[in-house]
Specification:
The chain has 502 residues and is mainly alpha-helical. It has helices at residues 16-46, 51-58, 60-77, 87-103, 116-145, 151-180, 193-216, 222-229, 233-241, 246-258, 262-292, 303-306, 314-352, 354-370, 394-398, 400-413, 416-422, 430-437, 439-458, 465-481, and strands at residues 380-384, 389-393. It contains 20 helices and two strands. A hairpin with a 4-residue loop joins strand 1 and strand 2 (389-393).
Length: 502
């Protein structure tokens, strides 16, 4: 983005509720993300996926982000029509994501045409691609519409809505079971009714919140936008008209990689350990606590063993359902802890420095994962969650403690790398290098998807709690590797407001 030129019109401030309208769709998108993160493994397991193959289904998430975000981001930059610049992509992505959310838990209805597990995997890919189609132009929309002097307000509203969506999406299946009264157990080859209806509600919230933003946000026409942003229209026209061959683009990309700032290379190692661990958590928390806390043996996740049975015993189905619901609670907990910690993150980073804050946060996250081992089974206790009371093993309640560390790590992972990196990037190439930095998020997850399943099967004999411990070890390695990062610039404690959410 260029600096405004002298005499150029100043972009007007937006009323608070217009800032709210621009960001409201984030609530729905994060609602859908949270439902997926907490329940995709549960759905795929119910549809017949073995534990060691779960990570291979999840590989579509980082792959879609890697492929879709750069394409959609570039396309939306070049799009101007009567519906707007970003809004057409946002709306199309939301519709596609809502369809994926409606069909994925109903994969068993497609058994006549395709195996339910394959249909579920296809719908997971559709959801991930659609979420990315919506999210990339959504972030650009906020930047387009909110003037720089209101950017802190914009980030704060965005953070609030994202965290509300994450908490509600994570807890919805639990609420539908324990408050509404829907069944949370699944028959063989099917998905629990509470999860199916949670995805229906999620699709509705996603589509409704995005429609609100699209209808209530009128994007600036090209001339007005260019004037506000200080963009030279003649130069922009020349850039848009310039066509490069694939070979020229590839050479330019390789040149950027070769000239990558040293700080960015060093942060890539930290990103590798952090996102490798996070991916394991999202894929394997449900089977880990089902086995370790609810005492369900690994054989009940073995598709070949289940195929020999006429039906799953009621107590096994009940335990798997209760554990799946509780994953939503602890995932909501780490989102809440992350939101609270993000409020204090700037002050802590100012006092301790970015590297120390980042390293300490990852240390607490790693210890949180490893401490899952300490919370095993226990006597049944009744827990008052304000909206309802539920009976769970004492070990399940204890899992809220590790999630404090996980939440702190999550907040830091989403803020500190970018705060450190921003001072090291050349101003003229900040956008492209931030795009390249996304590879340091996607690549570790892809590698984790390829190796975590075989490790779980061959090394840990499908005892999923130990793959969570391995995630903790990787997070601790990330904590150590932070100290090999060399910062540039003087604002070593400054963190962009609201950056610690996603």
């Amino acid at each position: 983005m260029s600096d405004p030129v002298a005499g150029a019109p100043v972009q007007p401030k937006l009323p608070f509720w217009q800032v709210w309208n621009v960001s409201l769709g984030f609530l729905g998108v994060q609602f859908g993300f949270a439902l997926q993160n907490a329940n995709a493994s549960r759905i795929l397991s119910d549809l017949g996926a073995d534990l060691h193959s779960l990570s291979l289904f999840w590989i579509v998430a980082p792959l879609m982000g890697l492929i879709v975000q750069p394409i959609v981001g570039s396309a939306s930059d070049r799009t101007w029509n009567r519906f707007g610049r970003r809004n057409p992509y946002i709306l199309f992505g939301a519709v596609a994501a809502a369809l994926g959310m409606a069909f994925m838990p109903n994969a068993s209805i497609a058994v006549v045409f395709i195996a339910p597990i394959l249909f579920g995997g296809v719908m997971l890919a559709l959801m991930d691609a659609a979420f990315n189609v919506t999210m990339q132009p959504f972030r650009a929309l906020v930047s387009d519409m909110v003037p720089s002097q209101q950017r802190t307000l914009g980030y704060s509203v965005q953070s609030l809505l994202i965290n509300i969506g994450a908490v509600l999406g994570s807890t919805l299946p639990f609420i539908l079971t324990n408050v509404v009264g829907l069944e949370n157990t699944a028959r063989a080859g099917e998905v629990a009714p509470s999860v199916i209806w949670a995805f229906y509600v999620g699709a509705t919230v996603l589509l409704g919140s995005v429609l609100w933003t699209v209808v209530r946000t009128r994007e600036y026409p090209p001339k007005q936008y260019n004037a506000y942003k200080g963009i030279d229209e003649a130069q922009l026209a020349r850039e848009l008209a310039e066509r490069q061959t694939l070979w020229q683009r590839l050479r330019g990309f390789m040149g950027l990689l070769w000239d990558m700032p040293k700080t960015m290379r060093q942060l890539a190692l930290v990103q590798f350990f952090s996102w490798f661990a996070l991916f394991i958590m999202w894929v394997y928390t449900t089977p880990a606590i089902t086995q370790h806390v609810w005492g369900v043996e690994a054989k009940w996740f073995d598709h070949d063993y289940l195929a020999t049975l006429d039906q799953i015993p009621a107590h096994i189905a009940a335990a798997k359902g209760a554990a799946g619901d509780w994953v939503g609670i602890i995932f909501a907990a780490y989102s809440l802890f992350a939101a609270v910690f993000s409020i204090a993150l700037t002050r802590i980073a100012t006092a301790l420095g970015r590297r120390a804050t980042y390293s300490l946060s990852l240390l607490l996250g790693g210890l949180g994962y490893i401490s899952f081992l300490l919370f095993r089974g226990g006597e049944a206790i009744q827990v008052n969650l304000l909206i309802t009371q539920v009976t769970v093993p004492s070990g399940a309640l204890g899992l809220l403690l590790p999630m404090v560390g996980v939440g702190i790590a999550w907040a830091a992972i989403l803020a500190m790398p970018y705060a450190i990196l921003s001072d090291a990037l050349p101003a003229s190439k900040t956008g492209v290098y931030m795009g390249i930095f996304n590879f340091t998020i996607a690549a570790p997850q892809i590698l984790s998807a390829l190796v975590a399943g075989p490790i779980l099967h061959s090394v840990f004999d499908n005892r999923a709690i130990y793959i969570i411990v391995l995630a903790g070890v990787f997070m601790l390695c990330g904590s150590v590797s932070v100290w090999f990062v060399r910062e540039t610039g003087t604002a070593a404690g400054e963190v962009e407001p609201g950056a610690a959410t996603a």
